[in-house]
Amino acid sequence: MKACCLVALLAVSLPIVFSGEAAALRTRLGDHFFVPDPLPELAVRVHRRFQPAPGVAAEALTYATQLGMRVPAILYRPDPLPAAGTCPAFVVVNGHGGDKYSWYAYFTGIAFARAGFVVLTYDPAGEGERNSTRRSGTREHDRLQGDAVLARRLAGLMITDARQAVALLAGRPEVDRTRMAAGGYSMGSFVLALAGAIEPRLRAVVLVGGGNLDGIGGYWDRSKAMCQGLPYRSLEFLGDRAAALYALHAARGPLLIWNGRADTVVNMPNTQDEFFTDLQQRVAVRHGSRQTVFDFGFTPTASHRPYWLTEPVARWLGRQLRVPAWTADPEHPLPTTHIATWAQRTGAAMDRLYATEEREGGTRAVGVDVPGIAREELSVLSVEEWERAKPSLVFEMWVARARQSGG
To answer: How far apart are CA 33 and CA 217, in angstroms?
Structure first.
């Protein structure tokens, strides 16, 4: 690119973040995706309490999201709570077909709670108790037909769900509001790339199985249309979209992007070190500083996995959030579990497309002695309660309300 063209481009794209107007851009992005401002009242309802594993207590709850809908979720916490001080917190943002029933969601809840976290996992739109038949792995929202406006509304629903999860944790007395983090996997990496750019209360964000946001006509423009492709294309007003979003993350706090080098699910073989190094440089220009520009890393030979459960990412989170269990002895490996072996032993359900060794089955997850949990134990509502609450839960009702709102 000629120097004169580069100067002209920077003149258009730099001032949004470089001039210190991150708050204004966050508002603009929220409006663009129809995220309510202010966010809806949480109206948290705890439906029951249970103990999923030794050393861990859990609450099955629901909270409010946009257009009068509600989100079923499970909150995990240490049991007992620390005698002095408060806990870091972590939100799980699932990938396609994932929900609070997914092995990695409850494994994260238990393993992280034993390390001292309060963890929130929830059902994304169209999955679990937000599905009209209460099933998982349906990818129901991928069947939605609509234009770019409805796609922006869907992305906004997912952003709102995640931001409300952060708000819920921020309101818990046992949570240290200065040590809140979130992890997004696969589709969740895209959702959290947006939500984390907008949500300043997150101290740290981890994007795994994704985060390789590319340019016009690239993978993310061509990916699942309603939840990713159309919403990402709609951000062309930002100029260099990836740099603008990650500059907002830099203004918020630390960000780590971690992937498997062989992850063909999200085109990772074509976006390796050189891609991310170039993106770091563009973010630094947009941010006006190299400080807090994202970190990145790879697990060799591996593919699509929830890498926040692996040791290098847990260590990074430990440093950002001051987690003694993961920082006290950095030279000593953390205890881990081989997930394929664990799933076979415990009977934990896994998506057969991802249960292979190169994908989720090969994950070496931090934590040991995590039990498999029966699906019914992770359901927030009984069948009778769910039937009564269905109009405020299921995806098809949100679609009807979104269309009535002009989407």
So the answer is: 21
Q: What is the per-residue DSSP string for 326-378?
A: HHS-TTSPPPEEEHHHHHHHHT----TTT-STTTGGG-EEE-S-PPP--GGGG
Low-confidence ranges of the chain (pLDDT < 70): 1-20, 407
DSSP string covering 40-84: PP---EEEEEEEEETTEEEEEEEEE-GGG-EEEEEEEEESSPPSS
Which residues does residue 57 pair with via DSSP β-bridges, in sequence order?
A: 77
Cα end-to-end distance, the chain, whole Å: 39
Domain boundaries defined on the chain? 24-404
Cis ω for the linkage preceding 80 (within 30 of 0): yes
- Amino acid identity at 69: M
Neighbours of 167 (CB within 10 A): 18
| pLDDT tens column, 194-249 | 999 999 999 999 999 999 999 999 999 999 999 999 999 999 999 999 999 999 99
Question: Alpha-carbon distance 402 to 36, whole Å?
Answer: 13
Rounded Cα distance between 171 and 159, Å, is: 19
Task: Enter the CATH code of domain 24-404.
Answer: 3.40.50.1820
Tokens of 88: 């870091």
- The one-letter amino acid code at 9 reads L
Order of strands, edge to edge, in the sheet holding 87-93? 45-53, 56-64, 70-78, 118-122, 87-93, 175-185, 204-208, 255-260, 295-299
Residue 396 burial (C-beta neighbours within 10 Å; 0-12, 13-18, 19+): middle
Instruction: Count CB atoms within 10 A of the CB of residue 207.
Output: 32
Q: Name the token pair of 36.
A: 């309510």
Q: Structure tokens of 160? A: 């709102």
pLDDT, tens digit (0-9, with 9 covering 90-100), for 246-259: 999 999 999 999 99
pLDDT for position 219: 98
